[in-house]
Amino acid sequence: MSNRKEGDSFVYTVKEQTELLPFLREVMSNRSRNSVKSILTRGQVTVDDHIETKHNYALYPGQTITILKNKAAIKESALTGMSILYEDDDIIVINKEAGLLSIATEKEKKQTAHHQLMDYVRREDAQNRIFVVHRLDKDTSGVMMFAKKEQVKQMLQEDWKETVSERTYAALVEGEMEKKKGYVSSWIKESKTHLMYSSPMKNDGQHAITHYKVIQSNKDFSLLEIKLETGRKNQIRVHMQDLGNPVVGDKKYGSKQNTIRRLGLHATVLAFRHPTTGELLRFEADVPKSFLVKSR
Fold this sequence. Notes:
five-stranded antiparallel sheet, Structural Genomics Hypothetical 15.5 Kd Protein In mrcA-pckA Intergenic Region, Chain A
């Protein structure tokens, strides 16, 4: 395995098939097993472009493993699994990695974007807070915005459709698309098992519209640019399943394979009018390299 330092991280290239914990034990042979396990649990390890915490996660030759140094993870400025793209007195915009929760769940309270940003703003003033404006699924990466004041959150949520001028995603889906460009319109509902689905009946659920365009494709995969007209829960994932081209790695919504070993969904662009200044802001996060489709 090769090894290089990059600022606050150590970067390794996997040379042979193994599992994540044994690999880390080998490259960090000066540390105890518990110390290595805690580095994993704290979300300091990234495989290619997603955080990975599973001890038995299978590694293959050519993958890149990045380990955030302890000092950097403990250091006040360190944010695990995300980076800040923009910040002012009212809002904070981040680029979230796949594998990081947006907000707390019953099982996980602290290893979330919301909790980390709350800690981050409270270093300046203990009274500071962070408010959730919208969410990205845990396994979706990309641009996400939070508010720093409750009234700003309310302004953004109440006028979300008028405030946001562009929400663009990159989606890696299975198979070749029938059309190079198109849209899906349906009424989305939630089942008793919390699975979202398109109702066959008009006006039965929340109306959802998804526009898509093929950027790259071969017979196995298509990389799509997706623009949302509405922002329903799991909307892209449901609509891609409806088209017969489920998002790669999305077992919940019909995917049969996961070559990139993460969900093939990334929020590339968020453009909106600033809630207090009225200025039009546009933020972009590059499409993950693992999404790029090789033409044949």
